Amino acid sequence: MGGIHSVYNETLGPQKGNVNSHDFIRKLRGVTTDHAADQKLFVQLLGEWKKEVDLEDRGRRFLQDLPPDKMTILLCTALQQAIDKSGGFASWNQLSSVERDGRNEEFLKALCIELGEGEFGKLSDEEKRMIREMLWRGCCMHKEMNTFKEGCSEMDKYWDDQELPGPMKLMNRGIILPHIIKGVLRKSDGSLRLPSAEQLN
Known about the structure:
Elements: H1 2-12, H2 21-27, E1 30-33, H3 37-64, H4 68-85, H5 89-94, H6 97-120, H7 125-131, E2 135-138, H8 141-161, H9 173-182, H10 197-200
Parallel strand pairs: 1-2
């Protein structure tokens, strides 16, 4: 998903291209899939991702609106947690700049989610429901197909029970081709003619 948004942003340029995966999942309201277990799990994971993104974004906005002194305290606390988890300052200093940036982002994200949970709790039940709404609709294709097939089977049984000939077969390649090969459908001049009902049956 991140790759798709990167291509989109690069195509539009820095002035217009400014979307990310968070924009996508926030706007997502539902998914249509089949009834396979992996697809149901997929929808569940989308819902969990949407919840996490909402909390993280709320926490980041809350953090940005804090006075500088309070923001500094929270950020320093998150940094200290990252350092402690790495094994202390000695181990922290042995990490590459890329690794340190990754650890910082990890703990900043955890901090934002924690702050976001507090902000989310202030919303009404209706607001919470709308924000986390994730609808799932299962595909009915196979159910409709099975219904149609069962209807055809029952009609076949009825025609047999009532000793009825049933409907005339529709022309298709499987029916016409053998007659063409045998020459049944060719006139004396070699042109084709339509078969009769008796020939089709």
